[in-house]
Sequence to fold (502 residues):
Amino acid sequence: MPDFLTGAAVFILVVTGLGLFRVLRSQVAVERMMAVQLLGTGGAAVILLLGTATASDALTDVALLLMLLSAFSCAAFTLGQSSSATATERAEEKP
Amino acid sequence: MTGFVDAFTVLAVGSGAIFFLAGTLGLLRFPDTLSRLHALSKADNLGLGLIVIGLLPHATSVSAGLKLACVWLLAQLSAATASQLIAGVARNRRPRA
Amino acid sequence: MNALLDVVLVAGLLALALHVARARDDQGAIVGFIAFGFLLGLGWVRLASIDVALTEAAIGGGVTGLLLLRVEAHTRDSSAPDRTARPITIAAAAVLCIAVTAGLAFVILNLPSPPPTQAPAAAAALDATGLENPVTAVLLAYRALDTLLEKVVLILALVGVWSLAPDHLWGGAPELRPAVVPEPLSYLARVLPPFGVLIAVYMFWVGADAPGGTFQAGTILAAMWLLVMLAGLRAAPDTRRVTLRLLLIVGPAVFLAVGFLGFAMAGGFLAYPAGAAKPIILGIEAALTLSIAVTLGMLVSGPSKRAPTS
Fold:
């Protein structure tokens, strides 16, 4: 069973990594913010799987923290984004 | 009995992994920002939920199982608000861009 | 299977680091850096350093991101033209980074095998402290002096940030609330903090016996406080408020007091009387958690932006 769970963790890590690079390399600034959300969910899944595979309960705490803070960072990013959006729009309107 | 539990875990975790794959495929293939956001927040969350369900029978204690469920609940809250926030930024921008 | 996991993780970390270094705009680099922090947390999990993984997730994934974003917003407003570094600066930075990496690689590859370790000694003395988490024992018993100085440094950093405020704003409050607060954010700021506070208290309590502890708990509390201030539900406090300043120093003050009491009760600075180590350590940790939360929250908030209300 541990082998299957670790295998699933590797699979999710690879899949999340692919999505992560797609999102981070995006030309649209808004899409880059999805990276935090993507890695929060994917990372939590990987950590939970590893926690059960290695029978260490403390890993659940790491996943809990990751989920809590990914919501926080995502909020922080949208704020920075909206203020910079208005800034660039103002700059675009000027000429 | 363990055979049954293990089969359940394999099924749930396996389908969870497939939903993660679906989320990434959506992210790679969908045409615009809002549908990509949709793929990410819905599919990945369902995947995480299925994995949590699959891992629940292996929890060592009741509190460990509750913590697993809490991770998923937090994920729900976080994904729902985060995608609202991101979609809000995307929508404010589109008409002018 | 574990080897495959490690290879994937290391490849992801390296690719992400390259992405951050090559990112064209600052915000892209910051998002990449946060993602790097999350992935690094996974790396620490694989190295079985769960205490470090928790700290990395809390600091790298949470508070640092907001701090960097605020710095980026600030520099963008004030110095718009000519922010690109000259080629010689970039080359110098590259050479320095490569030198540090090469030095680290050299040291790590030349470690004797097995590397020298104090771990058995730390585990053997664990019973005397009454704790079960060796990391907490190192931080608050064996090397308590280091931890004390660390917390003092944190306050010094805050004094440095505060001193950036112009004279007429001195003692006033920092400003975090953006011009427009999106509705989902105020919802999040109402719903998330109760969870956060619960998790922080749990993290603090479990730290004596399992991975977790004051720093993680303090960081979570700081993040929740910042969220409330960002959404404008509560304004940031005036930096000259007495309660705020008392909260900032209560941790180090309790720590120092216990340290000096050690002379009277156990024959040395920061020595704990036998048998009473665990309650004393928990007391110090509780005070420290509060101070860390307030210090980190104020650090990220930055210098005062409003005149003090009299």
User: Anything to note?
Assistant: Chain C touches chain A through 60 residues (CB under 8 Å). Chain C has a mean pLDDT of 88.
